[in-house]
Specification:
Elements (H helix, E strand, L loop, with lengths): L1 H5 L1 H8 L4 H16 L8 H9 L7 H17 L6 H11 L1 H4 L1
Helix pairs in contact: 2-4, 3-5
Amino acid sequence: MRVVLARFDLFTRTAQDSTFELREAFLKKLVVYIRKDRFHPKVVGRVNMVLFLVAHEPEDELKETVLKFARGRRQRLPDSASPSLLLTLARTSLPSQLH
């Protein structure tokens, strides 16, 4: 957990690196780790936020890979997961980054 928190800036910079091959390898590995629950529950929200950086991804193939993963995760949420629940989840991971 501490490694992820200490290196979060590196995660975000790697996801936006100018080399496509590096971005692709990193994001695909990140998706695999998220799928296999390899991250501590307290940092999952923060790690998921790295995936939002794909909105600026110039390569459609990589962007579509991550979007497909995100859509699949969204479908796995329970029906009771309302926008307010999603907002609450975002609030729990955002304030710590603002400091």
